[in-house]
């Protein structure tokens, strides 16, 4: 049996991306019910920012409870971690994960750029293992050294993220189908591929290159259950990779479909020195607030629409189950 499916207790080795603001209980349960691993992102179900760690944790608890009411299948919660101490926000959400018996977590690692930042916070990993919680680690800066450090820490699954992804992009400009064999050949734990996985062909290609599963974000945004704004879903359907703009921001790069804000971000990238452009754009983007405004609220004047190059393979808004069944059709056939 496929190791990812076996470890996570799911039908397909298909893991849904965390996508910050673009998840909620309904969407995550739909992914899990369709045979994948649904994941509640850092701002799951939220429409406003809160500076309170306690409120953030209670918002997540409510989403966990709602998800549990909608599916009896495994799902995960996102924890943002680094190689060193974790934030009070992460600690509070970790408490919720344990108290509500969530079976798995996605550890979104901020490190991976030096020997001091490879891997994740050891104390967090130790706590998760003590409670029998499965761990999927996705580093902001994937590398051979980081994957090996994560493996040594006892992670169950590693995500190799290529430069084709949407959202916060890695500084190492290695494409998805180049990074996959590089990481898979370096570790013994199963590896998922993220970035431009959007149809059965790309799933098959990922497996051919050593992946034991896929990590999918952008393809699941234009689905009936996803909380993204309808005009954003249609924009994705009507666009392809040629429409995407790449620009510098902190920590490295972002890409987006055209919006008024993105015009300014692109102009800064073209006219300002590297570090200056990164800092100016990060300020304009307001962390992930620009994603909330653009993709959740559908405001294409003040926000941005960050997606990966796999949007070229998206041709309609479909239910989550249809998308997953189509993408995993060959895997399902081979598994019989």
Automatic annotation (TrEMBL):
Signal peptide: none annotated. InterPro entries: Aldolase_TIM (IPR013785), NMO (IPR004136). Pfam families: NMO (PF03060). One of its GO terms (molecular function) is oxidoreductase activity. Gene3D superfamilies: Aldolase class I (3.20.20.70). This is Probable nitronate monooxygenase. Keywords: Flavoprotein, FMN, Oxidoreductase. The lineage of its organism: Bacteria, Bacillati, Bacillota, Bacilli, Lactobacillales. Nitronate monooxygenase that uses molecular oxygen to catalyze the oxidative denitrification of alkyl nitronates. Acts on propionate 3-nitronate (P3N), the presumed physiological substrate. Probably functions in the detoxification of P3N, a metabolic poison produced by plants and fungi as a defense mechanism.
């Amino acid at each position: 049996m496929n190791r990812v499916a076996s470890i996570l207790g799911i039908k397909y080795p298909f893991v849904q991306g965390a996508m910050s603001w673009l998840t909620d209980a309904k969407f995550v349960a739909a992914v899990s019910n369709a045979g994948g691993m649904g994941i509640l992102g850092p701002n799951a179900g939220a429409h406003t920012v809160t500076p309170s760690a306690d409120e953030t944790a209670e918002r997540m608890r409510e989403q966990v409870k709602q998800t549990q009411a909608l599916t009896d299948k495994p799902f995960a919660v996102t924890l943002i971690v680094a190689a060193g101490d974790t934030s009070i926000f992460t600690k509070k959400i970790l408490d919720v994960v344990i108290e509500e018996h969530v079976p798995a977590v996605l550890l979104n690692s901020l490190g991976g750029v030096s020997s001091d930042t490879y891997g994740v916070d050891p104390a967090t990993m130790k706590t998760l293992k003590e409670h029998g919680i499965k761990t999927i680690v996705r580093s902001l800066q994937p590398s051979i050294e980081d994957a090996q450090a994560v493996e040594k820490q006892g992670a169950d699954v590693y995500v190799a993220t290529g430069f084709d992804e949407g959202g916060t992009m890695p500084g190492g400009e290695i494409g998805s189908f180049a990074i996959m064999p590089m990481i898979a050949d370096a570790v013994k734990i199963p590896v998922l591929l993220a970035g431009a996985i959007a149809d059965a062909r790309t799933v098959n290609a990922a497996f051919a290159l050593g992946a034991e599963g896929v990590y999918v974000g952008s393809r699941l945004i234009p689905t009936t259950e996803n909380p993204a704004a309808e005009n954003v879903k249609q924009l994705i359907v009507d666009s392809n990779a040629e429409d995407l703009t790449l620009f510098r921001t902190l920590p490295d790069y972002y890409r987006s479909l055209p919006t008024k804000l993105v015009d300014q971000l692109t102009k800064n990238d073209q006219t300002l020195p590297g570090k200056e452009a990164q800092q100016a754009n990060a300020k304009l983007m307001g962390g992930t607030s620009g994603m909330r405004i653009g993709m959740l609220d559908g405001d294409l004047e003040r926000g941005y629409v960050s997606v990966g190059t796999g949007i070229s393979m998206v041709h309609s808004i479909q239910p989550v189950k249809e998308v997953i069944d189509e993408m995993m059709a060959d895997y399902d056939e081979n598994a019989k």
